[in-house]
Design brief:
- There is one protein chain.
- By secondary structure, the protein is of the alpha/beta class.
- The chain has a single domain, classed as Alpha/Beta hydrolase fold, catalytic domain (Rossmann fold).
- Helix content is 22%, strand content 17%.
- Strands 3-4-6-5-7-8-9-10-11 form a nine-stranded mixed sheet, sandwiched between helices.
- Strand 5, helix 1 and strand 6 form a beta-alpha-beta unit.
- Helix 2 crosses helix 4.
- It is globular.
Length: 371
C-alpha cells in the first residue's frame, strides 16, 4: 500500500508516531514512522486493474534517518515486453529516462494508444519503476502500450525543470511512434500526488512556450496529451496552504516551496507558473480527477478547484470524490473508473464514466480490537 505526500497509508488510514517522512522538515506539525513505500503488485492481478488498490506512489517514505535502499519492482507478466531506462532528453542523467512496456501479443493490428504514468514523491523522491505495476494490467490486456516517466527531482533542479522533462518524454513518444507501433494521437497521462500535479500541468499547459523546454531530439513534436487522469495532485499553489493539512504548505521547506526554489508566498509568480489551474483554457483535453475528501496532505479543495475551472472553460472534466478517502485509495471502484475513462478516450468505446462519489473501503479491525 502506498500513499503520496511522503507517507504510507496503513489500513486505518492513519500514521504511527515516530520518525518523519522524507519531505517533512523541522517546521512541520508532526512526525511519523512509516515503512518504505511498496507498490501494490497490480500486474499480478488476473483482472484488469482489479483487486485491492492503494494508489499514491508519491512522496517516498523512510523509516529511519539513514537512506533506505529502493524497493525492487515486482516482475512483470510474461505477456509484457519491457524496454527500461530509455533516455528521452539526450542526456546521461538516469532521472531523464523512461520505461516502455509493450504487449508481446497486441489485441489488434493497428498502433497502440499509450498510457504514460508519472510517479510521485513530493518532487524529491520516488522513481519511474513504480509506474510499471500501475501500467501492467493495461498493457497485459494487449490494448495499450505503457510508458513510465522519470524526471529530475528538487535536489538537482527546480521548476520548470520537471515539466520540461515530462514534455520531452511526451515528444519522445511521438518521435518514436512508428518504431514501436504507437499511436501518436492517443496519449493519456496518469499520475498521483506530485505525479498528479505534473500530468495536470501537461493537460493545461499545451502550447505554453515557456513550459515547453528544448530538451531532446524531438522538439518538432507536440507535447499535448489526449486525456488526463489526476489522482490528488496539487493544482493551485496560491491557496494550497489555506486548508487543514498535516503540513504547512507555505513553509520554506514544504514540497511546493522546494519545487519552486523559495517560499510559495514569497514567490507568487513562480508559484503561479507551477499551478495547473493558471493555464486552463478551452482547448485542454478531458480530465478525470479522483481525490479523497479526507486527504490531509493535498486538500480535496485542490481537485475541486481545478475541476470547476475546467468546467467553466468548457473542458470535459469529471471529479470523483472518494468519501472518507485520504492520500491514497483502497476501493476497487477507483481502477474501474480509470479503465472506463481510458477506454472512452483512447479506444473510442461508447461508455459512460460514472461521476458518483466512491465510498472508501474500510479495512477490517483485527480480532480482539476495541469496537
Amino acid at each position: 500500500m502506498v500513499s503520496s505526500w511522503g507517507s504510507v497509508l496503513f489500513a486505518t488510514g492513519g500514521l504511527s508516531p515516530g520518525s518523519r517522512p522524507l519531505f517533512f522538515g523541522a517546521s512541520t506539525m508532526r512526525s511519523y514512522r512509516v515503512s518504505p513505500a511498496v507498490f501494490l503488485p497490480l500486474a499480478a492481478r488476473p483482472a484488469m486493474l482489479s483487486a485491492v488498490v492503494l494508489i499514491g506512489a508519491i512522496f517516498a517514505a523512510v523509516s529511519a534517518p539513514a537512506a533506505q535502499p529502493p524497493q525492487q519492482p515486482r516482475a512483470l507478466p510474461e505477456s509484457i515486453r519491457l524496454e527500461a531506462d530509455i533516455p528521452y532528453a539526450d542526456t546521461d542523467n538516469p532521472r531523464q529516462q523512461l520505461d516502455l512496456l509493450l504487449p508481446k501479443k497486441p489485441a489488434g493490428e493497428g498502433p497502440l494508444p499509450v498510457v504514460a504514468f508519472i510517479h510521485g514523491g513530493a518532487w524529491r523522491g520516488g522513481d519511474k519503476r513504480g509506474g510499471r505495476g500501475q501500467l501492467a494490467p493495461l498493457v497485459a490486456s494487449g490494448k495499450f502500450a505503457g510508458v513510465s516517466i522519470g524526471y529530475r527531482l528538487t535536489n538537482e533542479a527546480t521548476w520548470p525543470a520537471q515539466i520540461h522533462d515530462c514534455k520531452a518524454a511526451i515528444r519522445w513518444i511521438r518521435g518514436n511512434a512508428k518504431k514501436y507501433n504507437l499511436d501518436p494521437n492517443k496519449i493519456a497521462v496518469w499520475g498521483s500526488s506530485a505525479g498528479g500535479h505534473l500530468v495536470a500541468m501537461l493537460g493545461t499547459s499545451g502550447g505554453v512556450k515557456e513550459l515547453e523546454g528544448t530538451l531532446g531530439k524531438y522538439t518538432d513534436q507536440e507535447s499535448r496529451v489526449t486525456c488526463v487522469v489526476n489522482f490528488f495532485g496539487p493544482t493551485d499553489f496560491s491557496v494550497i496552504g489555506d486548508f487543514p493539512s498535516q503540513i504547512d504548505h507555505y513553509a520554506a521547506n514544504s514540497p511546493e516551496s522546494l519545487l519552486i526554489g523559495g517560499p510559495v508566498k514569497d514567490h507568487p509568480e513562480k508559484a503561479r507558473s507551477a499551478s495547473p489551474i493558471a493555464f486552463v483554457s478551452a482547448d485542454d483535453p478531458p480530465f478525470l480527477t479522483i481525490h479523497g475528501t479526507k486527504d490531509q496532505l493535498v486538500p480535496f479543495d485542490q481537485g475541486k478547484r481545478l475541476h470547476e475551472a475546467l468546467k467553466k472553460a468548457g473542458v470535459s472534466s469529471i471529479l470523483i470524490p472518494v468519501e472518507e478517502g485520504g492520500h491514497g485509495f483502497r476501493s476497487r471502484e477507483v481502477p474501474e473508473r480509470v479503465r472506463a475513462f481510458l477506454n472512452k478516450h483512447l479506444l473510442g468505446e461508447n461508455v459512460v464514466v460514472s461521476e458518483e462519489p466512491i465510498r472508501e473501503q474500510q479495512m477490517p479491525q483485527p480480532a480482539g480490537a476495541n469496537r
